[in-house]
Amino acid sequence: MNTSLIIIFAFAILSLYLGIRSTRGKDINMDEFAVGNKGFGTLFVFLLIAGEVYTTFTFLGGSGWAYSNGAAAFYVPAYICLAYVLSYWLIPKVWRYSKEHNIISQPSYFASAFKSTSLGVIAAILGTVALVPYIMIQLKGLGIIVSEASYGAISPALASTIGAIIVTIYVIISGIHGSAWTAVLKDIMILLVIIFLGLYIPYHYFGGVQPLFEAVQSSAPEKLTIASSGLSISWFVSTVLLNALGFYLLPNSFTVALTASSEKALRKNAITLPLYTLLLLFAFFIGFAAIIQIPGLQGSEGDLSLLRLSIQTFDPWIIGVVGAAGLLTALVPASVMLTSASIGLTTGVYKVVKPNSTDRQQLLVSKILIIIIVMISLYFAINGSDALALLNILSYALITQLAPALLF
């Protein structure tokens, strides 16, 4: 077993330990399992929402799109920042209503607000279907990261499977609490790694960020402008609007908002998170640098640009740290997505079929659904080949159909 793989497995075990340990001293019921009894302060909410931004899509897909499609990649920070601006006014109202009516899931919110059981069922099914591509992104990205960072010592399929087992174990045991505590480790790692790579690589190969873009301008100027067709201005604007409206409609983001202890915590996050989102630019710097340093990656291979360039640049132990950070960008968001999808189906569908079910029965059904959802997502992650950014947009295209209902 090489040095890089040892480091990655050490962090995988640490994340599993933190996930399981997080419920110490807590009596886990549905409310605690789903939204932490609505008791998370500003920091935990910040880390969980940030966890939905800094995913394997960010780690691989962001740099991959900068590599393959150039300036089109800037739609990512644009829509995320716009979503936070909208959330300053919108999400505290959602939280207040949910607090008053003891709501713990998105389907329950829609069913209650519109007094429509049917809308709740639709929201539960639509939310789960929209999350499957997103969970696929995490598991597929995890497989790519671990396989590449281990220098091929472990296959992507096996890495994705091991990651799926780890996240399933601690989600079933801890629910949203496991996500919160692993998010602390994950955000520390991603901050260190993405800033280091985003600064070191441009300076190492080009002498700075400006010389990097000058080099790209000389060799591939089309990467620095929006295309006239395809990924054009109209595509850019419409995708930014679509994703901004859909950001808090994704059940995972919606669920994280419900974990907050107050409206003030949500507004603080709406103010600070856009600045945090600008760190995405460092991932783009790596993708642009890879255009010059490792040309020739085709299609979804662009998602490998960050790892391929890192492997070309650094010693194995550093690659192990990079791989560990990438691993955590998969585990944390996937855990929140699995929790929110299972809770959504339980409260939106199962509870409609079995209205007299006990809290304990609902909790058991949620845990069974977690296993089913992760198995479906893992199957498609191993057998699918779509680029990560396209899967990301697919999720938003599905869930944003609920935007009119949320706004009304």
Q: What does the model show?
A:
It contains 19 helices and no strands. The protein is mainly alpha-helical and 408 residues long.
Q: Short description, anyone?
A:
By secondary structure, the chain is mainly alpha-helical. Helices cover 78% and strands 0% of the residues.
Radius of gyration, taken over Cα atoms and rounded to an integer in Å: 20 Å
Main β sheet profile: none
Q: What is the averaged pLDDT score?
A: 87
Q: Total number of helical segments?
A: 19
Distance between the termini: 56 Å
Number of strands: 0
**Helical percent range?**
over 70%
- How large a portion of the residues is in β-strands, by DSSP E? under 5%
Oligomer: single chain
pLDDT < 50 stretches: none
Shape: globular
Structural class by helix and strand composition: mainly alpha
Give the topology, please:
Layout: H1 3-21, H2 30-35, H3 42-53, H4 56-69, H5 75-100, H6 106-113, H7 117-149, H8 156-174, H9 176-206, H10 209-219, H11 233-246, H12 251-258, H13 263-277, H14 280-293, H15 305-313, H16 316-353, H17 359-383, H18 388-399, H19 403-407
Helix pairs in contact: 1-8, 1-9, 1-16, 3-9, 3-12, 3-13, 3-16, 4-14, 4-16, 5-11, 5-13, 6-7, 6-16, 7-8, 7-16, 7-17, 7-18, 8-9, 8-16, 8-17, 9-10, 9-14, 9-16, 10-14, 11-18, 12-16, 14-15, 16-17
List key phrases describing it:
mainly alpha, globular, single chain, 408 residues
